[in-house]
Design a protein that fits this description.
This protein is about 25% helix and about 15% strand. By secondary structure, the chain is an alpha/beta fold. The strands form 3 sheets. Strands 5-4-6-1-7-8-2-9 form an 8-stranded mixed beta sheet, sandwiched between helices. The chain has a 4-stranded antiparallel beta sheet with strand order 11-12-13-14, with helices on one face. Strand 13 and strand 14 form a beta hairpin. Helix 7 packs parallel to helix 9. It starts with a strand and ends in a 5-residue tail after the last helix.
């Protein structure tokens, strides 16, 4: 049997419960549901870090961000001593391709060689981040491939013509025709590249990373997808804004700072309806790739992995975005379809993005050159037992470091700021409405998980989270002030 190909499909900022396969209430996603029906669906998968850059560093290296880049924030160059997924497959005779959003930083200046960490062929859409960084909004060709594509088709700059920036959450509609929308472009260029591979490199296997920039905000579905969901019928967000007073102290000022407190309940529902419309559009583009694999005969020899970097709070507790450990932010879709492994199964075994590289290495029979934090999930995919008893996720650096640890049922959250603790029984309280620590009902379990977290930090070398006595480090809680809106940094910026 020839070597297996790999198609890694990632969304950006897609929460677990927003796809049909996760259960009732999500968007209509027949193509993603098909991958789940023909593969293995991980019901308890989490991101190792609920922010874009570090999560993608974990996909790339198989390691947690504190090892991969040295930071748990949305920055950081992958270190020279780290494995890289494209280098791994290059070294084993694969052609390696990436289409869409990689979010590898630092971004190269115009005219300089792009930072691709080994991909032989790449077409980028970084949602205007590179263009913005170098102050080249006007006449900004030759920096991001999708932006150039729009100029060639007479729509240059119209990806932001609705006036919404990358981190605004107000419901809107794309000014582009559907066939020029960014996720359409990613799927089209992925298809074109795979067809080229079949014609020119049929004797070599491929590793393709198809990386959609959506459904990350702005929530601007194109055409018919903007009206695909009635805002009155989408699920209500979990909890209320008032509940933030008992939750992660870093988040408490977010609604006012980002002007989310100006959103009515109807406005939040409208944003969610648009978010769902983007997801269904993306799912329709995935359909095209699945059909190509079938029609070309590649499906019989291609691993398909579908996931995302992290979720989106999508109005839960009055918040959007990520950077925290509540289910909307940290829990992710994680689906594997592997030739020769029976599909149609669901598992509650704990898994995450750092497992992608070691699992793909095992499935393709290619030996890793480095030891990594991630686990080989092949046994789980074949119906065997788990590879870990608890899953840990990390975010931010001193003095705001945060961690979660979950055994699949209970989730313990610790934030360095104010030595803040929370504990949730996810089986009984899946929306995380009742903090058991605050209610005095879960101290013994919280202490047990806290102890396991400390041991994990020692084992995995994240000493920045440990104080001199070997316990969890803490810093003073901030004085709560009236948050001032900051449209200059999070408002209607071009990108």
């Amino acid at each position: 049997m020839p070597p297996m190909n790999v198609l890694l499909i990632t969304a950006d900022q897609l929460r677990y419960d927003a796809i049909g396969a996760a259960g009732a209430g999500g968007a209509l996603t027949p193509s993603i549901d098909r991958i789940a029906a023909e593969g293995v669906f991980f019901e308890k998968a989490y991101t190792p870090c609920p922010i874009c850059v570090p999560a993608r560093a974990s996909i790339t290296t198989g390691n947690y961000p504190h090892r991969a880049t040295g930071t748990k924030r949305n920055s950081g160059l992958i270190k020279d001593d780290q494995p890289r997924i494209a280098h791994h497959f290059n070294d084993n005779g694969y052609e390696t391709y990436a289409i869409g959003k990689l979010h590898y930083v630092p971004y190269a200046a115009p005219g300089e060689k792009r930072l691709l960490h080994g991909f032989k062929y790449c077409e980028l859409c970084e949602s205007g981040r590179i263009i913005n960084q170098y102050g080249m909004v006007e006449n900004s060709l030759g920096i991001e491939d999708y932006h150039d594509y729009l100029y060639r088709h007479g729509y240059g700059g119209y990806e932001r013509a609705h006036g919404m920036g990358n981190n605004e959450v107000f419901a809107t509609v794309s000014m582009l025709p559907e066939d020029l929308y960014v996720d359409t472009w990613v799927a089209m260029r992925t298809l074109d590249t795979l067809e080229m591979h079949v014609q020119e490199h049929a004797d070599r296997p491929f590793f393709m990373w198809m990386s959609f920039p959506k459904p990350h905000s702005p929530y601007d579905p194109p055409g018919r997808w903007a009206e695909a969901y009635d805002p009155r019928e989408v699920p209500e967000p979990a909890g209320t804004r008032e509940m933030l007073a008992e939750k992660d102290p870093v988040m408490r000022g977010w609604p006012a700072a980002f002007m989310w407190d100006k959103l009515s309940p109807e406005g939040i529902r409208a944003a969610k309806a648009r978010y769902y419309g983007i997801i269904s559009h993306q799912d329709d583009r995935i359909r095209v790739l699945l059909e190509f694999l079938e029609d070309s005969g590649l499906a019989e020899n291609t691993i398909v992995c579908y996931t995302t970097d992290h979720g989106d709070m999508m109005g839960d507790f009055g918040c959007f975005f990520k950077s925290n450990f509540y289910e909307g932010s940290a829990r992710i879709p994680f689906i594997w379809r592997v030739p020769g492994i029976a599909g149609g199964r669901r598992t509650r075994e704990l898994a995450g993005l750092q497992d992608i590289l070691p699992t793909l290495a095992a499935l393709t029979g290619t030996e890793l050159s480095h030891d990594v934090h991630g686990c080989d999930l092949t046994g789980v995919l074949k119906g065997g037992g788990g590879v870990r008893d608890a899953y840990v996720s990390q975010v931010a650096d001193d003095p705001e470091q945060g961690y979660m640890i979950t055994d699949g049922r209970y989730k313990y959250i610790y934030r360095q700021t104010g030595a803040h603790e929370e504990l949730y029984d996810l089986d009984e309280d899946p929306q995380e409405l009742a903090d058991l620590v605050r209610r005095g009902a879960g101290r013994e379990k919280a202490e047990d998980l806290r102890g396991k977290l400390v041991e994990w930090l020692k084992q995995y070398g994240d000493t920045a989270m440990l104080d001199k006595s070997g316990g969890l480090v803490s810093s003073p809680a901030p004085v709560q002030k009236k948050a001032e809106p900051r449209p200059s940094s999070w408002g209607k910026r071009w990108y």
